[in-house]
Design a protein that fits this description.
Length: 721
């Protein structure tokens, strides 16, 4: 069966029939998606829009007196009272049967009318008095004389008073509002208003104020019901005639005749907050608290505009009788009554709400299988392990919330509303993993180095940036960080993070991995200073150890020179650090020292002449065996060995050089100069003598010269024999 026919069938079951003789054709404006409706009624009776949701329509037309103007609903008796200005009476309609059940004569030209719920009475503003009707007997029980042409009327439940407004005097630019006590049926206050042509009145229960449509002044007068004084004025509102209070939005709404619009006024600060374009000559306005809608009669276009008080836009238009003026809303029945002044009848409208209940189905997706979830609708909470939760509710607008036992999941639909409008409703709820930002900041690495963030569950992220971000659901996670640059290590390398419904910030700190490189010295006398250079740094010490802290890598090093000693370190020496300390031993050896004695037994004294003398070599430092080479000058051959004998034949200076070479190729030499001169030990001893030591004569300059010893440190190649 087509969707349009299904909806028509549902409407007929409810029993809300169209007026006799009217035709309503139901058409779909677009092909609706599953679970949605976008429909319009065409014809002269009912028009509705998809954004409105409820199906508002005309139910009936009821004939009443001549030129009906004001209209009021008696919720206690479910009756409707209509003021007929030309027939000077009030028609009483039984709302359930939509029949006129009584006609009550009142004063001349009855205009405004209001229901007093406190006493069960109806106050009718006529010219020039107020008629009070008992809703129990439908008879006039009192008349309040005022001697002024009256228009609008409103009941104030806060004080038990009725306010009626006069036409006023245009020339004097003034009018009055009269306050009537419903306990005494007497005027207890008269309030002068600047302006004239006062029409409709409304009561604001939130602030205890009475609002008066001041047509001639293009304004809204605000009266305190505590002091009976004018406490405010809202302007400009050109053409203002109808006024009502919207308890849902706490706004004051005015229908502006001639201006073709509705003005929205904030009840909190009496400022104009917006307007809505309407039909021709808007006159009366009523608020539908159950549907959250506003209905405005358009006198010039013979229809009623339907306005959403949430979107503040016209969502539908209903055709009614001729010159519709007064309008009243019956909360108990969800119906509106419109007084059609030129066609002498009352149109009955339904706002689309009803007491019939319809199914509301919530379908879940996104949760792990078997997860408990719930929906709370209109204060009722239901849970399920399946994918569906159902409710049954009458027409209306409902706020609902959804939740999951697995708090990691969330539905964006929570806190939204749905509307039940004469048919079942389906809501598809999608749950998604609720995640929160987790920011990880890296510190300690060189800018060119990349690093890893590894999370439990297999997630791994690599980046060269100083920070990275993740989105994680609530829960606890183990993680680790690492880098390919083995010179650095994370501190700590692994830990746990906890996401608990809020953003999380972590630090990934890397530190340079260093190990101690210790150089230990052997062979130096205590207190001898020595030094090492490595990785661009030089350090010295008199202790046996010199230490460096270095990252992993290979570094060249060198040992500084120490006078009198040689370090056992190869050329181009390096040390390699691999995550552990390194020990390097530097052995020092005393440098090679050479010396010899020439005929040690004759040094420093006169001895008997001998032409052949022994020479004795000594070597200290380094390691043997040693090679000894003697050089006695260019005319004498080399001699070899520790002990040699040499014959000095010439008188004068003689130079003797001793070369010593060790097994490592280290060479040292010593040279001594001696003076060979005539012997001077006595007259009988003649010949040649050799003197080493102090001089024994002064005749020859330094006849016996002191021995000059030159010890030079030289690194030469081994002498060849």
């Amino acid at each position: 069966m087509p969707l349009a026919l299904l909806l028509v069938t549902a409407i007929l079951v409810v029993g809300e029939l169209l007026p006799p003789g009217s035709v309503a054709v139901l058409t779909a404006s677009t092909d609706p998606a599953p679970g949605t409706h976008s429909l319009q009624y065409s014809g002269d009776r009912v028009t509705s829009a998809a954004s409105h949701g409820a199906i508002a329509r005309v139910l009936a037309s009821i004939a009443v007196g001549s030129a009906p103007e004001g209209i009021a609903v008696d919720a206690g008796n479910s009756e409707v009272y209509v003021a007929n200005t030309a027939s000077n009476n009030v028609s009483v309609i039984a709302a359930p049967s939509r029949q006129v059940v009584a006609t009550v004569p009142v004063g001349p030209q009855p205009f405004g009318i209001t229901y007093d719920a406190g006493k069960g009475e109806i106050f009718v503003a006529t010219s020039p008095n107020v008629s009070v009707i008992s809703d129990a007997t439908n008879r006039v029980v009192a008349t309040v004389g005022i001697s002024d042409g009256l228009r609008g009327a409103v009941y104030d439940p806060g004080t038990g008073e009725v306010y009626v407004a006069s036409v006023g005097n245009n020339a004097l630019n003034q009018a009055h509002v009269y306050v009537i006590s419903d306990s005494t049926n007497t005027v207890v206050a008269t309030i002068q208003i600047t302006g004239s042509q006062l029409y409709d009145l409304a009561y604001d229960p939130a602030t205890g104020r009475v609002l008066v449509a001041n047509y001639y002044d293009s304004s809204l007068a605000v009266i305190s019901d505590a002091t009976h004084t004018v406490v405010g004025r809202v302007a400009p509102i050109p053409g203002v005639r109808g006024v009502t209070y919207d308890s849902g939005t706490k706004e004051i709404l005015t229908a502006n005749w001639g201006a073709q619009n509705l003005t929205r006024v904030s009840g909190a600060n009496d400022t104009i907050v917006g307007s809505v374009g309407l039909g021709s000559n808007p006159r009366g306005v009523a608020y539908d608290s159950r549907g959250g809608m506003v209905f405005v009669t358009n006198e010039g276009s013979n229809n009623v505009s339907i306005i959403s008080d949430t979107s503040h836009g016209v969502v539908g238009t209903l055709s009614v009788g001729s010159n519709p003026r007064g309008i009243a809303y019956d909360l108990g029945r969800g119906e509106l009554f419109v007084a059609n002044q030129a066609s002498n009848n009352v149109s009955v409208l339904t706002d689309g709400t009803s007491t019939r209940s319809f199914g509301i189905s919530f379908f879940e997706s996104g949760l792990p299988s078997g997860t408990n979830w719930s929906v709370t609708l209109d204060g009722v909470r239901r849970t399920s392990l399946s994918s569906t939760i159902g409710f049954t509710e009458p027409n209306g607008t409902y706020t609902f919330s959804v939740s999951s036992a697995d708090t990691r999941y969330h539905s964006a639909s929570t806190g939204t509303t749905l509307m039940v409008s004469n048919g079942p409703v389906e809501e598809n709820l999608t749950f998604g993993l609720l995640t929160f930002p987790v920011a990880i900041s890296e510190a300690g690495l060189p800018s060119a180095d990349g690093w890893y963030f590894n999370l439990s569950g297999g997630l791994a992220v690599y980046t060269h940036s100083a920070a990275l971000g993740l989105a994680l659901a609530n829960g606890s996670y183990t993680f680790s960080v690492a880098t390919g640059d083995k010179r650095y290590e994370p501190v700590p390398s692994a830990s746990t993070l906890h996401v608990a419904g809020a953003n999380l910030f972590l630090d990934a700190t890397f530190s340079l991995v260093t190990s101690t490189v210790s150089f230990g010295e052997l062979g130096l006398p205590n207190g001898t200073s020595w030094g090492v250079s490595m990785a661009g740094s030089s350090r010295s010490s008199v202790a046996q150890t010199i230490a460096f802290d270095e990252a992993n890598g290979t570094y060249p090093y060198s040992v500084g020179s120490t006078p009198g000693f040689r370090a056992s370190v190869p050329l181009n020496s390096t040390v390699t650090v691999r995550g552990a300390g390194v020990q390097v031993t530097v052995t020092f050896a005393q440098l090679l020292s050479a010396d010899f004695m020439v005929g040690g037994s004759i040094s420093g004294s006169c001895k008997p002449f001998r032409s052949v003398l022994p020479l004795d070599a000594t070597a200290t430092g380094e390691a043997g065996p040693f090679n000894f080479t003697w050089d006695f000058g260019p005319t004498s051959p080399f001699a070899f060995g520790v002990h040699v004998n040499h014959t000095f034949t010439a008188i004068g200076d003689a130079s003797v050089t001793l070369w010593i070479a060790d097994s490592h190729g280290v060479n040292e030499s010593v040279t001594k100069s001696v003076l060979v001169s005539p012997r001077a030990c006595g007259a009988t001893n003649t010949g040649v003598g050799i003197y080493v030591g102090a001089a024994v004569t002064t005749a020859v300059a330094a006849t016996i010269a002191a021995v000059t010893v030159h010890i030079m440190r030289r690194r030469r190649a081994k002498l060849r024999r």
